[in-house]
Amino acid sequence: xxxxxxxxxxxxxxxxxxxxxxxxxxxxxxxxxxxxxxxxxxxxxxxxxxxxxxxxxxxxxxxxxxxxxxxxxxxxxxxxxxxxxxxxxxxxxxxxxxxxxxxxxxxxxxxxxxxxxxxxxxxxxxxxxxxxxxxxxxxxxxxxxxxxxxxxxxxxxxxxxxxxxxxxxxxxxxxxxxxxxxxxxxxxxxxxxxxxxxxxxxxxxxxxxxxxxxxxxxxxxxxxxxxxxxxxxxxxxxxxxxxxxxxxxxxxxxxxxxxxxxxxxxxxxxxxxxxxxxxxxxxxxxxxxxxxxxxxxxxxxxxxxxxxxxxxxxxxxxxxxxxxxxxxxxxxxxxxxxxxxxxxxxxxxxxxxxxxxxxxxxxxxxxxxxxxxxxxxxxxxxxxxxxxxxxxxxxxxxxxxxxxxxxx
Length: 408
Hints:
Elements lengths: L14 H21 L8 H4 L4 H4 L5 H17 L4 H29 L9 H7 L4 H4 L9 H19 L3 H17 L6 H7 L4 H15 L4 H16 L1 H9 L1 H5 L4 H18 L10 H27 L5 H44 L6 H4 L9 H7 L5 H18 L1
Helix pairs in contact: 1-4, 1-16, 4-8, 4-11, 4-15, 5-8, 5-16, 5-17, 9-11, 11-12, 11-15, 16-17
């Protein structure tokens, strides 16, 4: 396939991506339930002496999520306007997120064993998903990744505005890479805020992998991926410190983390090159659809359940039981909230975007038929009358003003 051509027609669902998402989600859950001490009330080295040395690297599932996100967002943004892109992201993210906020808040209010909800106003701000930018604590500590994702969406929206093309995507990858390299060396809060150097290599590499998938691999795209791979490896130590703490990091070998990142890049490269196209297991898309609500509800609520029953149930059955419970609840959120509310939200937002495109939203028929009050000035009759295009309304108001000046 030539570099200038693109894949025609709708893209078949890449079931392998769902498989990657599932493994990434389970690895994060493995890390939270087996490594974090807050759920057990004691050092987890004694609770899981055999599993903890492996679970301690589960936080890398977040990096894999970001790799997949770069791939998927570039794919879903192709051929869309910025309004369509925003509608798709909002209707996809928020319904399950609101359900996750409500569920986690209820659990923490009912059993404030691991951590209480400090203030209801914090919960309200969390509903916006913008709490990371205004200094409000997350209802669930896992939500920090969503704010990183939002930054990526805002940046990629610039590409959508200009048009998602091969050239614009490559240019975007180059500029974001430059920002990520410059940000640590300059004292610029805005640049550092959006550059997110520890995580941008994964999003950028994901974009490059999708370009390989849609067009063809070439030296430029491989160079982009190779550079992001090197930058991602550079930040492994800092990520270990932020996830495990400095003391644990000093006695934890870093090489497995480097290997896991390498495997993540190799798997995404294989997906981009079509090596896993034959994997079309029917259960994978259904399981992949659960990863987002599963991620949203698993951490604080799950740790609370573990803490509540830690003295009554043995550790391994308790972890397996809580994981299964969270998967069942995630399925319920997906079927009963995410899908139906997502459709309603998408339809309403599309109407709102259409009003923006038309320039002037039309008033409902019920409002258009409201009669003017006797003796009301012309401006009031215009205000309650049928609304046409913006130019016609402005002309009518100008004519009314002229008549008033003449009467004076």
